[in-house]
Amino acid sequence: MDEFDVLTQLRQDTPAMSARARAQGRLRLLGEIEGRRRESRWLPARRTMLAAAGVVILTVAILGYQVVGSPDGGSTAEASTVLQAAAAVAGVPAAVPRAEQFTYVEVVHVTSGGRQRVQEWRSVDGSRPGLIRSSGFLGSTSGAIAPYDPAAGLRTAPYAVLAKLPTDPAALARVLGEDPYVQDSVRYNNVSRDVGIWSLVRELVETAPPAQKAALFQAASTIKGITYVPTATDAAGRTGEAVGLDDPRLGNVQFLFDRDTHAFLGERILNHGSTTSIQFNDAIQQTGVADTAGSVPRR
After folding, report:
1. Which of 268, 260, 265 has its CA nearest to residue 285?
2. Domain count of the chain?
3. What is the value of pTM for the model shown?
4. Which parts of the chain sit beneath pLDDT 70?
5. Which InterPro entries does the UniProt record give (predicted)?
């Protein structure tokens, strides 16, 4: 049991946190603790992090003031165009993994405290435990990812479940809007349905099958309030463009894309009202399919 298990026990109706959300939350919290321990010279910015369905809120000061990106956000039309281009690339057919295999995602997470490498193996059909490994400035940890529980909704859904989602963007948006995670976000966190859908999309795009990944970007392109950021740098130092949406719980949540290939690079979260103060940055390093949890696919 860790600090997030303790927090979520305060309400029994709180949905389980995904391994990805748990890793990100822990990185932010421990990054802040480490930053204060070292008496960092960086400017503090007051942030709040939702630990469980809007019921438990941790107020943390995220130390970190990275100056990257453009000072001016572009229009919704430009943002929509970027997401449509990303959808065209994401939808290119690929080999379908077998039920007994595992999807693999390797991501570099950067906070003010430092850099952490996270690897996740998830059962393709959701029937077997997966694995998550983390190494970096917070040390090294390893733990199991529980088999998929359909009651949890799509947030932790395996490849085989995501492959059954509609590929029509409008139909997919309706399904996403009815998901328990989105419904709870609206009910408990006082966010709009669009913000809830945007938040769910960011949980699914890394491991969704090509056709569904394309539909996710297309559905996201219709969300009101998205803005275009012409220059953005991910956690690996790659420069591209971004599309962002303000989330009252977190800040401006941005998807980053390669400007030339339109490939999805990762995400970053900026503090409310800022175009330069980055509290969290992700960079996807590798995705693939593995025969066993713990084995890294060949590039």
Report:
1. 265
2. 1
3. 0.77
4. 1-74
5. CU044_5270-like
